[in-house]
Amino acid sequence: MPPPFILSIPIKNIDYKPGQFLTLIIPVEGKEIRRSYSLSSTPHESPRLSVTVKRVDGGLMSNYLLDTLQVGQEMKVMEPIGNFCLTCAPSNQRHVLLFELVAVSRL
């Protein structure tokens, strides 16, 4: 399996937080196709945003990005959005625990 493709997008003065995502927009047969990708860059890497794209069999966006998009080509990208963000400040005294519960049963 080939490694994922990292799409870097140069930006100017866009503020974003870890945990947000971008919506990429491409034209397909006269319609706009939109797909959201989590940001794989950090705000400290400004002035660029990066998303990691993995090919999906039959996927319109992933196949377009990997097969058709050329260096320097322009495309529509919505500003970063999303609320799955953790803001850490030295004054915060809360602890956050994230976990996943998996249940297994026999048939």
Characterization of the model:
- With 107 residues, the chain is mainly β.
- Helix content is 7%, strand content 28%.
- It contains 1 helix and 5 strands.
- The strands form 2 sheets. It has a 3-stranded antiparallel β-sheet, covered by helices on one side.
- A hairpin with a 2-residue loop joins strand 2 and strand 3 (31-38).
- The protein is globular and about 50 Å long.
- The two termini are 33 Å apart.
Overall pLDDT level: 79
Poorly predicted tracts of residues: none
Order of helices and strands: EEEEHE
Cα gyration radius (Å): 18 Å
What is the tally of helical segments?
1
Largest sheet, strands/sense/barrel: 3 strands, antiparallel
The residue fraction in helices comes out at under 10%
The portion of residues forming beta strands comes to 25-35%
Main sheet strand line-up: 3-2-5
Cα end-to-end separation: 33 Å
Topology, element by element:
Blueprint: E1 5-10, E2 21-28, E3 31-38, E4 48-53, H1 60-67, E5 76-77
Antiparallel strand pairs: 1-4, 2-3, 2-5
Keywords:
two-stranded antiparallel sheet, three-stranded antiparallel sheet, about 110 residues, mainly beta
Q: Short description, anyone?
A:
With 107 residues, the chain is mainly β. It is built from 1 helix and 5 strands, in the order E-E-E-E-H-E.
